[in-house]
Specification:
8 strands; alpha/beta; disordered N terminus; 15 helices; disordered C terminus; 42% helix
């Protein structure tokens, strides 16, 4: 993995007034890891990232286990572009989660996030992620235990779905998380049973806002099916949330956060050098036989927004040799042109 001691990219301004709308980059297990966070946060527009989950069972993890998932901890919990990263913990034992949160706090994270939304069957069968939404009381105990275990200056947030098989206990879970002291709650507007199938039920987030209303309520962030600027605007209108978390939309369109803010966009010519750097980092940390798959995975997402990504995917679809892929990527990089020499008269002047 690329060391955080490597020269940083140009910093992206991410400090905004406390009352400014937040745009967060979602965690996506198996896709949106530190490598892709590093690349996507260079585009600008993202205020904070949440890492993939760190699974907590019955073991007190060493520091290196947290750093393995969140290498940004070696860079003051920020990507090389300067965007804060909040590590996320997943588990069901309040005591074990609290002890590991305290250990994680020693590394100076930007905050600690708790996962109550993962829909993966293996995770749910191990009593983690979205399955806990059937037990609001346990959800509350987890948040409370972690909140007590870490310094008060350290934010504790949570991410949940609307429920496991249905959304009947969504309000109970949101209230339990709020009462336990979470400062922020991201709501993916689908149940585990919905998976990632559209639509996202943003109106249910509005219901949660109503039940959490009042002083001391956590900041509520809407998540789910935000692919375009129009989606973001409609999500804000329906959910009542100014703050948004974006996952697959940013992976397929790295300029989406910028576009939502009205600050521009990212064209394919800008993506090409990032693809090359992404490949370089993947080559450093991923087993040779899996490298091509990682690149094609991202290209497969990018082709939703960029036709050129579809052409690249088709070209590389049957190629697995890393050297061939690397050479192809190098050949696609925009050529740098040297500035022409000024006229002699200008030099003499």
């Amino acid at each position: 993995m690329l060391s955080m001691s490597d020269p940083p990219a140009a910093a992206v301004t991410c400090d905004r007034p406390n009352d400014a709308p937040l745009l967060l980059l979602a965690p996506m297990e198996g896709l949106l890891d530190a490598t892709l966070r590093d690349v996507l946060t260079r585009a600008g527009g993202i205020d904070r990232c949440v890492s993939e989950f760190i699974r907590i069972t019955d073991t007190l993890l060493p520091h290196r286990a947290f750093v393995r998932v969140v290498p940004e901890l070696l860079n003051h919990s920020r990507t090389r572009a300067g965007v804060p990263v909040r590590p996320q913990l997943l588990g069901s034992d309040p005591v074990c989660l609290a002890e590991n949160a305290a250990r994680l706090a020693e590394l100076g994270p930007e905050g600690i996030d708790l996962n109550f939304g993962c829909p993966a069957r293996t995770v749910n069968q191990s009593r983690g992620g979205a399955v806990l939404l059937d037990e609001p009381e346990l959800v509350g105990r987890i948040v409370e235990a972690v909140r007590r275990a870490v310094p008060s200056r350290l934010p504790v947030s949570a991410k949940m779905r609307l429920g496991y098989q249905d959304d009947r206990r969504a309000e109970d879970c949101a209230q339990a998380i709020a009462a336990a002291g979470a400062s922020e709650l991201v709501v993916h507007a689908r149940t585990k049973a919905h998976g990632y199938r559209p639509p996202a039920y943003w109106e249910r987030i509005a219901d949660l806002r109503a039940c959490l209303g009042g002083a001391g309520a956590p900041r509520l962030v809407a998540n789910g099916e935000i692919w375009r600027v129009e989606d973001a605007l409609r999500c804000r209108q329906v959910s009542g949330c100014r703050d948004l978390m974006i996952g697959r939309g940013m992976v397929s369109h790295p300029g989406l956060a910028l576009a939502i803010r009205g600050d521009g966009d990212v064209g394919w010519e800008q993506i090409l050098p990032w693809l090359n750097d992404f490949w370089t980092q993947v080559s450093q940390r991923v087993d040779r036989r899996h490298r091509a798959g990682r690149l094609k995975q991202w290209l497969g997402s990018l082709r939703r927004h960029y036709p050129q990504a579809g052409q690249a995917f088709d070209t590389l679809r049957l190629i697995h040799d890393p050297e061939v892929i690397g050479a192809w990527l190098q050949a696609q990089q925009p050529r740098r042109t040297c500035p022409s020499e000024p006229p002699v008269a200008d030099i003499e002047a």
